[in-house]
Structures are given as C-alpha cells and as structure tokens.
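Today's session is about reading a structure prediction critically. Students often jump straight to the picture, but the first step is always the sequence itself: look for stretches that repeat, for charged clusters, for runs of hydrophobic residues. Only then move on to the predicted structure, which in these notes is written as discrete structure tokens rather than atom positions. Here is the chain we will use throughout the hour.
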Amino acid sequence: MTKRNQNKKKTQSGIDQHQDADLDDIGEIDDIVGFHIRLAYTAVYRHFMDTFADLDMTQKQVSVLWLVDDHPGIAQTDLAKRLRMDRATVMAIINRLEGRRLLRRGQSASDGRKQTLKLTPTGHKILIDAKRAVLEHEEWLKRSFTKQEVRTLIDLLRRIHD
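Below is the predicted structure for this chain, in token form.
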C-alpha cells in the first residue's frame, strides 16, 4: 500500500469515526424518557422475536397461555383485566390459540355467562418450550444489570404502567 493510500485510509477512518461520533449526538431528544423507553422496547422486542422464531408465538400469546396455566378455568374477562388488554384483543388471541388447539373454552360452573379457559396438552407442551425461551430471553435482558437494578427497573416501570 502506498503512503498516499495509507493516508487516505487514515483520513477515511478518521471521517468514519467522526461521523460515528456525530451519530451518537442526538441532541435534546436524549433527555426524553419516552424516546429511551421506545429504543429499549425495540431492542427487547427484536430479541424476543428472534428467541421465539421457532415457536411461532407472539408475546401476547405466550402471556395468555402462561396466565391460563397459572389460573386454570380463568374467565376471559378476568384474563383481559389481568393482562391489561381490551376484551376484543384478548378474544382474538384466544380464538387464534383455540384454533391451534393450544387452549379450550369451557362454561363456568358458578356463572353460566362466563367462558373459562384451560390449556390443552399441546398448549401445555408449547408453554413449556415458551417458558424455556422466556428464560433465555430474560437472561439476555438482565445480564446488563445487578439483581437489585433489575428489581429497581421493574419497580420504576410499574410506576409507568400501573
């Protein structure tokens, strides 16, 4: 490599480093909490989708299966309240999961107007795989924090969503 090419490469490298430094300066938006929440959400969602690609499940579907497993016979309306989702969204998720034979609807013994939910054996198997993937995803997410920082982060996020 000639001296001129070396200098050109150094200059180009210097320009690249300068441009990278300029890209890191986002100005006043760096003080916007919502901006950082969006960036964090995007990173977490992307990793979640990569982790769950083989399961063909969304975050909401996994949450529904998990909550139904924790509370067999839970009513659809109670599920929506616990997940803080509207009933129409929960019903659409339940319809998809029922179509895949991962859960089934039943009639409430105490209130005939309510439909209850239970996992099928296939749903239980899928949930076991999903929980394994969630643990892998959580390890990735938590590795940048101490246990106390994770607890603090969860507490701070609860202030926003509760």
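Discussion point for the tutorial: The chain has one domain: 32-161.
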